[in-house]
């Protein structure tokens, strides 16, 4: 699921909530992309399995799909933190949009540590700027 879930996104682009695209439209665009992949692979058994795994991720009803959703959001805030550090600019919207949404206990712990490191980073930045 972790590998397959990004295949359709790789064709339509990384659509975020800030892009003004509804969840329904995003799903439809990615479904068309996945259908194209299945077509390209001549509806093989492997192509059908990829579509099934992608749909499992999209429906987010299994523990595995929910775990991959958590990993995907976690990866997004890791990237945001790296951008913040390299550009010395806060990207609060990424962190605000993920607060309280993580379900897996290990991911929750990792995310809490990321939030703490982020706050430490910015408090050190502001202490240095005040000096």
Work out the strand percent. Answer: under 5%
Compute the separation of the termini in Å: 49 Å
Mean pLDDT: 92
Q: DSSP helix count?
A: 6
Q: Oligomeric status of the shown chains? A: single chain
Strand element count? 0
- General form: elongated
What does this protein structure show overall?
With 131 residues, this protein is an all-alpha fold. The chain has helices at residues 7-12, 23-40, 45-59, 63-87, 92-96, 105-130. α2 runs antiparallel to α3 (45-59), α3 packs across α4 (63-87) and α4 (63-87) runs parallel beside α6 (105-130). The protein is elongated, with a radius of gyration of 18 Å.
Structural topology:
Blueprint: H1 7-12, H2 23-40, H3 45-59, H4 63-87, H5 92-96, H6 105-130
Descriptive terms for the model:
73% helix; mainly alpha; 131 residues; elongated
Short description:
With 131 residues, the chain is mostly helical.
């Amino acid at each position: 699921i972790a590998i397959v879930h990004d295949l359709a996104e790789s064709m339509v682009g990384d659509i975020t909530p800030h892009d003004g695209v509804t969840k329904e439209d995003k799903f439809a665009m990615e479904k068309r992309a996945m259908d194209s992949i299945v077509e390209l692979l001549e509806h093989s058994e492997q192509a059908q399995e990829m579509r099934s795994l992608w749909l499992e991720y999209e429906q987010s009803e299994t523990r595995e799909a929910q775990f991959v959703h958590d990993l995907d959001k976690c990866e997004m805030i890791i990237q945001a933190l790296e951008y913040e550090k390299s550009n010395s600019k806060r990207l609060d919207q990424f962190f605000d949009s993920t607060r309280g949404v993580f379900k897996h206990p290990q991911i929750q712990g990792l995310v809490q540590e990321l939030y703490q490191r982020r706050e430490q980073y910015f408090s050190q930045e502001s202490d240095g700027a005040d000096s």
